[in-house]
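Researcher: Re-running this chain for the archive, since the previous output was lost when a drive failed. Same request as before.
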Amino acid sequence: MEFFDVISRRRSIRKFKPREISRSEVEKLLQAAILAPSGKNRQPWEFVVLMGSYPRQLADIISAKVDKLKEIDFPTGSALNSAGCIAQAAAVVVVYNPKWKPDTNRNGRRRYIYSVDTQSVGAAIQNMHLAAVDMGLGGLWICDVFYAEEEISAWLGRKDELVAAFALGMADEDPAPRPRNAMEDITRWLED
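Model: Regenerated structure tokens:
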């Protein structure tokens, strides 16, 4: 597949077929992720791969936390839908930033390092998503894991920053492209 075809065919897949994904397929995606650019070559990412019954366990953790949040009228958006997608996935890659340091004062140099690391991790996830498309797989970049961040990190024995999860499987849907802003509406050119 040509590069721009991969980009234009990338979709957020929310329905997966019940098909296993091999470890070697996931390793190929992780290889794409670690080839992403990172600020100062910090490579601020680590991955926890969930396969077998583990995606369902992750979905259950998120669902239980969302149910508790709803009891106190805390808005949870699409988190239950995301948990459902995770439960169907053949594999889920949970992405952490091990270089993150708890810092309540995010100004000065620390703020910039944090922002650069976040962008770098985003590039790694995007590489993984595009590689999945190229391999004929579907994926969903999920940030709704934040609702259960403490519970997920305790379950996985992590003390660093949970950034996102990436659900992966054989797509059981073919969504149309989402609308995009026109380039002329979002771009300002300065040239001589």
